Amino acid sequence: MQHYDGTDFPWSKEVVWNLKELFKLSKFRPLQLRAINMTLSGKDLFLVMPTGRGKSLCYQLPAVCSKGFTLVITPLVSLMEDQIMYLQLINVPAAMLNASISKNNAKAVMAGITDPKSPFKLLYVTPEKIAKSKLLMSCLEKAYKAKLLSRIAVDEVHCCSQWGHDFRPDYKLLGILKRQFPKVPLLGLTATATSSVLKDCEKILCVQQPITLSASFNRTNLYYEVQQNSNKCGVLTIIVCVCGLYTTGIVYVFSQKDAELVSSELQKRDILAYPYHANMDPDSKSRVHREWTANKIKVVVATVAFGMGIDKPDVRFVIHHTISKSIENYYQESGRAGRDDASADCIVFFGFSDIFRISTMVVMENVGQQKLLQMVDYCQNLDRCRRSLMAVHFDEVWDDEGCNQMCDTCCRVKDYSTVDITEHAKQVVQIMELAASMDEKLTPLKLVEAWMGKGPAKHRKTIKPTTLSRQQVEAVIVRMLLQGYLREDFSFTPYTTYFYMKLGRKAPLLKIQSHTLSMKMRITDGRSAVVSTCWSQGYITKSLNRCSPVCTPHLDRKKQKCRNFC
Ligand SMILES: Nc1ncnc2c1ncn2[C@H]1C[C@H](O)[C@@H](COP(=O)(O)OP(=O)(O)OP(=O)(O)O)O1
User: What GO cellular component term, any one, is given (predicted)?
Assistant: First the structure.
């Protein structure tokens, strides 16, 4: 394999020349040269490389060094437009075919496909075009026969698999390409795919035994941190502080409403923040994107609609106001930070009720629930370094040295201790059994309240209220959910989906005397690195759960309460 890292191939001189003179890059990043040499040798390849590490170069550069053109399948029109704009800038001819281009333009592109002079080196198409346009397939057929179709690149290849985090039905039909054009090397690219997802993609794309190249998922310059979402004021305080520390960043939120609300709260605190979500008109969306890229806007407060194709190198923070729906999503979204290799912060706020908000949203997805719980485990698991949890998820062999104190768990090991929660878990089971005996279903909130001695007396008559704090109560319930002592139960009405708790398959184990259950909990109120920095710079004075100086202008003087959040 290492042989492919060399520069003694017939094409090597041209490759190196183009890297420097055309793409204006001084050297390759890890795995780029290997991938380029392999695809130029005609091998079928899956390239798994973290977001922002330069996957595009691995097909753009070979395209320039090959006869004919490279067909690039990309899911989003905006992604195509960005790439074409960049390629035009460096004088590499490229074209695209999608529903947004004019008929005349499409006609010219179709003619270009079979033109022996190849007026473009890269042709970008959506998977829908491959699935639906017979004309395109017939042109590609002719190009194949004339040896003009040099390579097929399938970007975001994980979209083929239903087990991936972003399945797109039209990707399922892309197997036709390898069946019709078996001699053309295929290059599948993704930032996030487990080995089982790649196996699935292999079948769907009809490639036989492709070579998989995986760059380490570990973005060493990113600092990962999870903050408890205890109240809205605390969350906003930290967001405001982080915005004060850095020049540019993204805040991801759950809904369009949150995007509007959080951005307007940041604006009230003199932070140049704008919302971005799918319901905005295209002009407003591209204006926000453009102005943020040009540093005229400091923060974009966005839903996941602000996604693929964002290539701003100097993003210094990505904050998740609400957890992502999967680790893959989180990795990709947070990975938009620090593309310039300078350090950047990735902070996610984890709130108990958010689990159930998102749960009802992903309930229809094939493995939506399972993926959400993996994300919850990432947030709640204090046993292992955040990076090692991601490594396990992406099937990467992990060495604990790899984190280098760049996550909150590694920085704060002294703040955690293992606590036996067996008796607590038994109390939860008693409450659940009592509710079941009355034929009642408990929502997570009702379960918390009953255990804390609040809510209807009938739910808690057999036990004393717990002595645990609310945060600990929630943590125990989440732990029980993650470990199968509790499980989710959904109920659908024509208007909404309700989420209830049920006893899980492992609940009977708690009846066995010798069975124990433990978890790591925070024992001190030590400050995280991000909070410490805010602290040392005078942004935060007391507890994060109180109003800080940043909130002071918004205090209602009479009630001494924050008008918006407390
Ligand atoms: N060898 C290199 N040296 C320096 N910069 C590079 C190199 N290769 C690529 N880049 C730059 C170009 C882009 O600005 C940036 C990201 O490249 P890009 O190909 O868009 O990433 P990607 O495709 O892996 O990310 P995503 O998964 O988000 O699509 O890195």
Answer: nucleus
The architecture that CATH gives domain 419-522 is: Orthogonal Bundle (1.10)
Distances (CA, A) of 479 to 136, 137, 242, 482: 52, 52, 30, 5
Please work out whether the CB of residue 76 comes within 6 Å of at least one atom of ligand 1. Answer: no
* pLDDT at 564 > cutoff 60: no
SS3 448: helix
Q: How far, in Å, CA of 59 to CA of 51, rounded?
A: 15
Q: Which helix (H) or strand (E) holds 475?
A: helix 470-482
Residue 563, number of CB atoms within 10 A of its CB: 12
- Give long-range contacts, CB 8 A cutoff, 24+ apart: 11-15: 11/40, 11/65, 12/37, 14/65, 15/40, 15/61, 15/62, 15/65
3-state secondary structure 306-362: CCCCCCCCCCCEEEECCCCCCHHHHHHHHCCCCCCCCCEEEEEEECHHHHHHHHHHH
Write out pLDDT tens, residues 453-493. Answer: 887 766 666 678 888 889 899 999 999 999 999 998 888 87
**101-145 residue pLDDT tens:** 888 999 999 999 999 998 999 999 999 988 888 899 999 999 999
Ligand 1 in contact with 311 (CB < 6 A)? Answer: yes
Same fold, 2-214 and 419-522: no
Residue-range domain boundaries for the chain: 2-214, 222-412, 419-522, 534-564
Least confident of 41-45, 84-88, 314-318, 547-551: 547-551
**Which residue's CA is the nearest one to ligand 1's atom 30?**
54
CA atoms within 13 A on the CB side of 27: 4
Any ligand 1 atom below 6 A from CB of 59:
no
Pick the atom of ligand 1 nearest to 49's CA: 24
CATH number of 222-412: 3.40.50.300
Atom of ligand 1 nearest to the CA of 26: 3
Say if residue 373's pLDDT is above 90.
yes
Of all protein residues, the one whose alpha carbon is nearest to atom 6 of ligand 1 is 54
Question: Would you state the pLDDT for residue 372?
Answer: 94
Asked whether this complex has an ipTM greater than 0.85, the answer is yes
CA 191 to centroid of ligand 1, rounded, Å: 11
CA of residue 334 to ligand 1 center, whole Å: 16
Instruction: Give the lowest-confidence range in 37-41, 57-61, 258-262, 495-499.
Output: 495-499
Catalytic residues: 55
Strands 94-97 and 299-302: unpaired
Ligand 1 centre to CA of 41 (Å) is 22
SS3 73: strand
According to DSSP, the residues that pair with 407 across neighbouring strands are 224
**CA 402 from centre of chain:** 21
Which two structure tokens, joined as six digits, stand for 558? 């009479």
Nearest CA to ligand 1 atom 25: 52
